[in-house]
Specification:
8 strands, Spore Coat Polysaccharide Biosynthesis Protein SpsA, Chain A, 5-stranded mixed barrel, alpha+beta
Length: about 180
């Protein structure tokens, strides 16, 4: 069964997730952003495997061009687990090129703990007056909740810009 929640105003991913709070009953839940497509390999499935192995939160990750860091949540690595998985030290939403901690981007797939709702409830608006899920994630990291960055193996299609959307449509039409 699919249930929908609606934002009256576009107040960010944190606000959208908070509106779904009453539907989340498990200790962890999977969140997918619709403008980040990953094809050819099931990214969510590989993230769930990482989550089951380490019993913690997981975020899909890939390296982006340094010039594009202001489009994503960007994290730096605390510790390498293996070739594709890293413990995240901190995460910042849409940093400038100068202040970016790295070029490791969080790509629209998250396995989040239900405890994120307590952080979202007390969250103050961030960049552009929005409530960002990355700010709540950072608050959990500061409380010693572990997050793993997972470098997925599927093909990423960025539908977050008009040019990316057109390229993605052409790529999918070839399938």
């Amino acid at each position: 069964m699919i249930k929908f929640v609606f934002q009256d105003k576009p107040l960010g991913t944190g606000d959208a997730v908070y509106k779904a709070k009453k539907f989340i009953t498990d200790k962890y839940f999977l969140m997918l952003l619709p403008d980040d497509l990953i094809i050819k390999k099931n990214c969510s499935k590989s993230m769930i495997m990482v989550h089951k192995k380490f019993k913690t939160s997981v975020m899909a990750s890939m390296k982006v061009n340094k010039s594009d860091v202001s489009r994503w949540g960007i994290y730096n690595i605390k510790k390498k687990i293996d070739k594709n998985n890293f413990i995240i030290n901190n995460v910042v939403e849409k940093p400038s090129i100068k202040t970016s901690p790295s070029n490791n981007a969080v790509i629209g797939r998250y396995i989040l703990p239900k405890t994120i709702f307590s952080k979202l409830k007390s969250l103050k608006p961030g960049k552009n007056g929005e409530f960002h899920i990355t700010d709540a994630i950072q608050a959990l990291i500061e409380d010693d909740h572990q997050f793993i960055g997972h470098n997925f193996s599927g093909k990423y299609l960025d539908c977050g810009t008009m040019n990316g959307y057109i390229k993605s449509t052409l790529e999918i039409s070839k399938q």
